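Why do we care about 3D structure at all? Because function follows from shape, and shape follows, mostly, from sequence. That is the central idea of this module. The next example makes it concrete: a single protein chain, its amino acid sequence, and then its structure expressed as tokens.
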Amino acid sequence: MAQSLTHDPNAWRAVAYADLELPNSEAVPYASLWADRLKKNNDAYVAKGDTRFAVANAPASESHIVVRSPTKTVVLSVLHTLTGCLPIRTDPVGNATLKRCPMRLAIYQNGRSTVADAGSGCFIEYGAQPNNVRPDLARNGAMGAYDVQAKTIRAGIVFQGEIAPECQFRVPVPQP
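And the structure:
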């Protein structure tokens, strides 16, 4: 699911998701961002005798918001793996689970990249929807925006139709 472009970085928009189990060309940068954690997740599956993922990663996905300026690109990414996340609560009606997972901030500027752990963030794991209907993002949705004045990425979750207070984050973007 690609993230929509906006001319107003302050405007909230849905985060984008990438499947990291067998990443396509669009997901490779996010798999690279999480290579160490993906290896740890893969090793955990092997340690349990699960070798189904010999040619791919064990189940993993991530959500991200990308902020671009003329001189740099900033990515806030949350990694979802079964071994790296903890459930917070579930929504049986929306068939979704809210989880706390690791979060990273990556900055790409002048041909260089900087990656920093950004604590933990929230991730919505969507279960199968009837008739393959897309999840109701007004009920369970992850959003992000860039606060130009404060120079922070804002990330937030609506879960079960209400703002999830434990999943509202402001991540400062380091300035040169």
